[in-house]
């Protein structure tokens, strides 16, 4: 099997963290923040308008039920073909199957080589586009030396705890840090594998197109640069990102991404191949033609976004420090109305959002990640009905 070893990260640029740190991060700007929220400031992009139908400016969210509870540091979530859910534990390095009807947990096993510290550990998860025949699970995780993506055979016939085959590394060399490890992976409508990475606290990596840090990557399932990538024989798809943890496509196969700002603006971006999203030279809307402006932005206390999903004509974005679910109605690649907040403070920090079909979403909480305040039942997976 082909494996792609990533290009070496270039020499150090300045170690991040300028003055003006957010006090809610334990002195770490841009970490998954947990202090109380502030105020909203939606933005818009300059991309072309379309003739598409516009969803209502106001939507709704109804909590249908708690699917599962008592989860430890849940991060990635992937639905199986039969409706059950796979969830990763960032700190334990395990993958667990959740019976979608009863909430029963069955541990598949541990991913070897996971080194959990800070924001690193076992993060995103995705099923192979050919899962029905190959039963492959893809996982993004932090090791002692880097962040990498591996695929593991799901051997359902084996006992609990022994259902994961040996990891086959398809991509490695993504910069790791105590913070800003990115971690979201997803197969796109083109069956290519996309990964959101962070700049690992080394801000200069985001503008360096030879580095894998602060990027969205696009590759084949074997870890090779995907055909049509903007920079030739490179997996880099877009750059100038700080810490991408949300990836989703709308019904027209357009890619969107959510990322953490530092102290001022968190972003929701419409992603274009080869686009430069500005970090560290721009945070939020800059109006500089060199950079692509976000379609919406928030003060960090209101968002600190992680996962996003598309449903009912809108993007739905989980807020960690913001402790709420944001709805961003779309017209083309623009926000058609101001973002609308739901579940404010009701379930604490929200990490991952996944479409569940029929106008429903699965949402995971993130209270046990070291920055929350866990209560009875945390962490949990919720089922929501949205419009």
From TrEMBL:
- Composition bias, Polar residues: 33-49
Under the heading InterPro entries, the entry gives: 6-blade_b-propeller_TolB-like (IPR011042), Glc/Sorbosone_DH (IPR012938), Quinoprot_gluc/sorb_DH_b-prop (IPR011041)
- Region feature Disordered, mapped onto this chain: 20-60
Q: Where is the signal peptide?
A: 1-24
One Pfam family linked to the record: GSDH
SUPFAM superfamilies linked:
Soluble quinoprotein glucose dehydrogenase
Q: Where is the Glucose/Sorbosone dehydrogenase domain?
A: 71-371
Cross-referenced Gene3D superfamilies: TolB, C-terminal domain (2.120.10.30)
- Which ranges does the record mark as transmembrane? none
Keywords, sorted A to Z: Signal
Name used for this protein in its record: Oxidoreductase
Taxonomic lineage of the native organism: Bacteria, Bacillati, Actinomycetota, Actinomycetes, Kitasatosporales
């Amino acid at each position: 099997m082909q494996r792609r070893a990533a290009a070496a990260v270039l020499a150090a640029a300045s170690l991040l963290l300028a003055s003006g740190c957010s006090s809610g991060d334990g002195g770490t700007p841009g970490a998954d923040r947990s202090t109380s929220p502030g105020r909203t400031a939606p933005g818009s992009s300059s991309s072309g308008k379309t003739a598409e139908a516009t969803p209502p400016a106001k939507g709704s969210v109804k909590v249908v039920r708690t699917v599962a509870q008592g989860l430890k540091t849940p991060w990635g979530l992937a639905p199986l073909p039969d409706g059950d859910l796979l969830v990763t534990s960032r700190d334990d390095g395990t993958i667990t199957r959740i019976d979608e009807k009863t909430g029963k947990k069955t541990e598949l096993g541990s991913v070897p080589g996971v080194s959990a510290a800070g924001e690193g550990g076992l993060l995103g998860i995705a099923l192979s586009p050919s899962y029905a025949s190959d039963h492959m699970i893809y996982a993004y995780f932090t090791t002692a030396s880097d962040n990498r993506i591996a695929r593991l055979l799901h051997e359902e016939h084996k006992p609990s705890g022994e259902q994961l085959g040996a990891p086959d590394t398809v991509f490695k060399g993504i910069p790791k840090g105590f913070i800003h490890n990115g971690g979201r992976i997803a197969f796109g409508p083109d069956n290519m594998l996309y990964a959101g990475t962070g700049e690992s606290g080394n801000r200069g990596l985001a503008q360096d197109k030879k580095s894998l840090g602060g990027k969205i990557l696009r590759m084949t399932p074997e870890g090779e640069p995907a055909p049509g990538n903007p920079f030739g024989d490179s997996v880099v798809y877009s750059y100038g990102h700080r810490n991408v943890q949300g990836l989703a496509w709308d019904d027209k196969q357009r890619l969107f991404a959510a990322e953490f700002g530092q102290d001022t603006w968190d972003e929701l971006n419409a992603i274009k191949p080869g686009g430069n999203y500005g970090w560290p030279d721009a945070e939020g809307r800059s109006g500089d033609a060199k950079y692509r402006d976000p379609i919406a932005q928030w003060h960090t206390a209101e968002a600190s976004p992680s996962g996003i999903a598309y449903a009912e004509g809108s993007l739905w974005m989980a807020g960690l420090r913001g402790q709420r679910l944001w709805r961003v109605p779309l017209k083309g690649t623009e926000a058609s109305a101001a973002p609308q907040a739901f579940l404010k403070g009701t379930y604490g920090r929200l990490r991952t959002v996944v479409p569940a079909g029929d106008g429903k979403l699965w949402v995971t909480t993130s209270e046990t990640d070291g920055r929350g305040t866990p209560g009875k039942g945390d962490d949990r997976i919720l089922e929501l009905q949205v419009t």
